[in-house]
Specification:
By secondary structure, the chain is mainly beta. It is 11% helix and 38% strand. The protein has an eight-stranded parallel beta barrel with strand order 21-22-23-24-25-26-27-28, surrounded by four helices. Strand 31 and strand 32 form a beta hairpin.
Length: 942
């Protein structure tokens, strides 16, 4: 009896636990679907090369569900390249003088119709159990002009490459079966004047919710700090895409970083009617809040739950921070009531080797690099960023100016601004919205003034807690500069800032761009023939200012909130002051890899809070013995003494926000700097003449986020004493086990080396496709001779009611530059019931993995024209209007990639690696002629 009672109790417990679990489990799912996409290039205007898209009598715009070509759910994409997102096809292309100046001469996009259209396809299964839910596709960004289809149904077009967007696919789903997502991206038109990439370069998600749910970006969290408490206002937007009429319970709970509950509220509300939205506000009190700031970026988490009849139907989490911000026209910027000088950089979104397809870890890597330089602010130039960048800024403590792409007052402009702001307004890192940048046609006139007034007021209607700015460069006198809330000065050389301030004394201001100086890492003598600019901090042009001059100007004026240097990192495109064969900018404080130029150490000295001592240049000047070398020291010490081979060259006093200089006749040996604070020696720094390179050295960068799947590795060479060789330019070859290489770089602005080494996938059409009738349904094992005069165009005028027992088809395909290293496959598209295939007279058996795939052996192929014969019993029409397949298939030629390699540039190169899912460790090896091999063992997820 006891046993029976025990079993009954156990069963009761399991049932009750299951019911409780079911009640507490939300209907919401948010699934990353970045893996296992198929990709191929289409064509900008040749529909045949665009796989026949939009050739049908009814187009996808004419009749619902008439997506054709690759947009059709039944399109055969087996021969397409397989890849994971994020993906930037532009970075994969070679450089060419005919490429776009703006995009760093990559041969893609504008001017390259065969490399301006990219097709993506992915198949997913959605279970029967999801019936009744709202199913959506969410894209964080596709560059650009993307069309999206689902099971052949056209969902919409998003013109901008920087906007996130979402499509509801609920009505089109094949539950319990296969569903096909198709994206056509058109990168033929540039939105910016800088490298923008091409393709699905941000994440894609499958979202599932209850019909009654929190809408997209449907929370807005603000806070007001009062004494020791913070009053948090949580506004939510509820959407009803179903027929439910009644109320739901809204439960709002705030948790701190340790998951401790800080506040909670609940109330019953009436849901909006069918396909409508409704907003609701709740007030919560957080006692003794931990404020978000740049040194202690404390975050909270708002959990919003909707309950219907006791069951949680939606659960939505919002990360936010509690902090106060204020601009003062006299005293600058304040964070949490404390004066804070903005020490910012502008940045585009590309990185060496990977273009715009940055893994999340690289966002953190780049922000950490800027933080170490002493920077506390980041301007998104000149478009909405990827969400992961803002998450990194939230977590690492970096203030952000969030900027929309284009100024205007119509739906295209205001809708983009609204989407950006609603997506991003819960990020505590964002302290200012920017509604424009350097709009030269309107900056100084009434049109600019009108547009700014509309956009500024529109922004305030979405978020009243942050100010609005515009970056202005064509004079600071009238137009936009007279009405914008926070004046954004782009460059001291473009106008009189003090005069503007005296005219508009109630208008706060900051330098939204400053610098635009030219520097090449590791170069100390400008060489215009090689397109290399000296790394010494100089004026970029007579009317502009050096980094030091710019910072002194802003540092000395309390009324200016701070400045944003152009730029933190070099980037593809905008090759000023050169052109081809330069492919990156020269403006960055760091190069495209994140390797520091010498100006980084000037900024660390005066932006940071740690002692700094840095000598420039290196001390390897073979052939310049006895000649004067300009030696600069960047430091925040009180005094610095310089020594050459232990002989003092003098002690100098450091002025605030300055640097020190010596003229030193070159002698090999050791250049040493000693830094003093309050008369006490606190730092030493040396530059030594090195020997020849002997060893390769691999090291993981300390800025890599912990527990990440992606890591940045620095490649360098050392001499026999282990000293870094700053002039080395050796070519290094790499191999990897347990992972894959995503990209390589070295920071050389003129390097035309490949960023990526990938297998080339070429699709070769079968041409001159002909047929003749067979007399038997039995298929041959050997190829026979067929009367030449009986060949006709395949499927031409076919009478499907009077078909022959079999048909013999023939065609040809052209293999150019064919070699034994190529892998050639025929992906057959069914044109018969029973089929046999011959290539150059040899019978080809189907592969074991796919009965309609034929791998063609090297011995049966030849360079040039190859003959293919297909003998098949015919397919029969079931209905007279059935459309029969007449395409025999495609030939896929895979040419294996070269080994990954990269030359060092002035001593450094970079390699970005990604760990395989189930690998326990990653082993990276590096080889070079005449150098000792290096191996690096990494456990990326510790």
């Amino acid at each position: 009896m006891k046993i029976i009672v025990s079993k009954i109790f156990t069963l009761f417990f399991i049932v009750m636990y299951s019911q409780t679990f079911a009640q507490n489990k939300s209907d919401r799912e948010w699934i990353v679907i970045d893996k296992d996409w198929r990709f191929s290039f289409g064509h900008l205007y040749d529909t045949k090369k665009d796989f026949g898209h939009a050739e049908g009598y009814f187009s996808y715009l004419t009749k619902t569900g008439f997506g054709d070509g690759p947009a059709s759910k039944d399109f055969d994409d087996r021969a397409w390249r397989k890849l994971d997102l994020p993906h930037d096809w532009a970075v994969e292309q070679p450089f060419g003088e005919n490429g776009s100046f703006s995009h760093g001469f990559k041969m893609a996009g504008k001017g390259f119709p065969e490399k301006s259209i990219g097709w993506y396809r992915k198949k997913i299964t959605i279970p029967e159990t999801d019936k009744g839910k709202i199913i959506s596709l969410q894209f964080d960004g596709v560059f650009r002009n993307s069309k999206v289809f689902f099971n052949g149904y056209y969902l919409g077009t998003e013109q901008s490459g920087y906007n996130g967007f979402e499509y509801d696919v609920t009505a089109y789903i094949n539950y319990g079966g296969e569903n096909t997502i198709v994206v056509r991206a058109d990168a033929s038109l540039e939105e910016g004047w800088f490298y923008e990439g091409a393709g699905i370069y941000r994440h894609v998600y499958l979202k599932k919710t209850n019909p009654v749910h929190i809408a997209l970006n449907g929370t807005y969290v603000t806070s007001e700090v009062k004494a020791d408490n913070a009053e948090v206002t949580a506004e939510i937007t509820i959407e009803n895409k179903g027929n439910y009429k009644g109320s739901v319970e809204v439960i709002q709970t705030i948790f701190d970083a340790s998951d401790k509950q800080n506040a909670n509220t609940s109330e019953s509300i009436t849901v909006p009617v069918f396909y409508k939205l409704a907003n609701y506000k709740s007030k919560l009190i957080v006692h003794n809040p931990k404020l978000w700031d740049i040194d202690s970026p404390n975050l909270y988490r708002l959990v919003t739950e909707l309950k219907q009849n006791g069951k949680i139907i939606d659960r939505y989490e919002t990360s936010f921070g509690i902090r106060t911000i204020k601009f003062d026209a006299e005293k600058g910027f304040f964070l949490n009531g404390k004066s804070l000088k903005l020490k910012g950089t502008n940045n585009h979104q590309d990185h060496a080797g990977i273009g715009t397809a940055l893994p999340d870890e690289i966002q953190y890597y780049r922000i950490q690099k800027l933080k170490e330089m002493g920077s506390n602010a980041y301007r998104c130039s000149h478009h909405p960023p990827t969400p992961e960048l803002l998450e990194a800024c939230d977590k690492l403590g970096m203030l952000v100016i969030d900027e929309t792409r284009l100024m205007g007052i119509n739906d295209y402009h205001l809708n983009d601004l609204e989407r950006m702001m609603k997506r991003d307004r819960n990020h505590p890192s964002i302290f200012c919205w920017s509604v424009g940048n350097e709009e030269w046609n309107i900056e100084g006139n009434i049109v600019g003034e009108r547009i700014t007034n509309v956009m500024q007021d529109f922004a305030k209607s979405i978020d009243s807690t942050r100010p609005v700015t515009v970056g202005i460069s064509s004079g600071f006198k009238s137009g936009i500069s007279s009405v914008v809330e926070i004046m954004g000065y782009n460059y001291l050389g473009n106008g009189d800032i003090d005069a503007h301030r005296n005219e508009f004394k109630n208008q706060p201001g900051m330098g939204t761009e400053e610098g635009s100086t030219f520097a090449t890492r590791g170069i100390y003598f400008t060489d215009d023939a090689k397109h290399y600019q000296s790394a010494y901090d100089r004026k970029p042009r007579p009317t502009f200012y050096s980094i030091e001059e710019g910072w002194k100007f802003y540092a000395e004026r309390p009324y200016l909130a701070g400045m944003f240097i152009w730029t933190g990192f070099d980037y593809r495109g905008e090759l000023t002051p050169y052109g081809w064969p330069s492919v990156t900018s020269y403006f960055g404080m760091m190069d495209v890899c994140g390797f520091p130029k010498d100006n980084v150490f000037y900024l660390k000295s005066w932006w940071g809070n740690k002692p700094v001592l840095h000598i420039m240049p290196h001390w390897n000047w073979n052939g310049m013995e006895g000649k004067e070398i300009e030696v600069w020291v960047h430091s925040n010490c009180d005094e610095v003494e310089l020594f050459l081979n232990k002989k003092s060259l003098g002690k100098k006093k450091m002025e605030i926000n300055s640097h020190l200089e010596w003229k030193v006749k070159y002698v090999p040996g050791t250049l040493e700097a000693v830094g003093y604070k309050n008369g006490r020696k606190i730092l030493t720094e040396v530059q030594k003449t090195t020997g020849e390179a002997e060893n390769i050295k691999l090291s993981t960068d300390q800025e890599n986020p912990s527990k990440g799947n992606v890591s940045v590795v620095t490649v360098e060479v050392t001499d026999k004493n282990g000293l870094h060789v700053p002039t080395a330019n050796d070519e290094i070859t790499f191999s990897i086990k347990g992972g894959k290489i995503l990209g390589v770089g070295n920071g050389d602005p003129t390097s035309l080396e490949k960023d990526q080494f990938l297998d080339d996938v070429e699709l070769v059409s079968i041409t001159h496709f002909q047929e003749q009738k067979g007399t038997s349904a039995s298929l041959p094992n050997e190829l026979s001779s067929y009367p030449e005069n009986e060949w006709i165009t395949a499927f031409q005028d076919r009478d499907y009611k009077k078909q022959a027992p079999s048909y013999i088809y023939r065609g040809e395909f052209d293999l150019k530059q064919y070699s034994a290293s190529n892998t050639v496959s025929f992906f057959y598209k069914k044109i018969g019931i029973e089929t046999v295939v011959f290539v150059n007279g040899h019978k080809i058996n189907p592969s074991a993995e796919d009965s309609q795939k034929y791998v063609l052996d090297f011995t049966v192929l030849k360079e040039g024209k190859n003959a293919i014969y297909i003998v098949a019993t015919p397919l029969q029409k079931i209905k007279d209007w059935d459309v029969m397949n007449t395409d025999p298939g495609i030939i896929q030629v895979i040419t294996p990639a070269e080994p990954w390699k990269r030359k060092l540039f002035n001593g450094y190169a970079q390699i970005i690696i990604q760990k395989e899912e189930n690998a326990k460790e990653v082993i990276l090896s590096a080889f070079a002629n005449g150098l000792k091999t290096a191996t690096l063992n990494m456990d990326l997820k510790k």
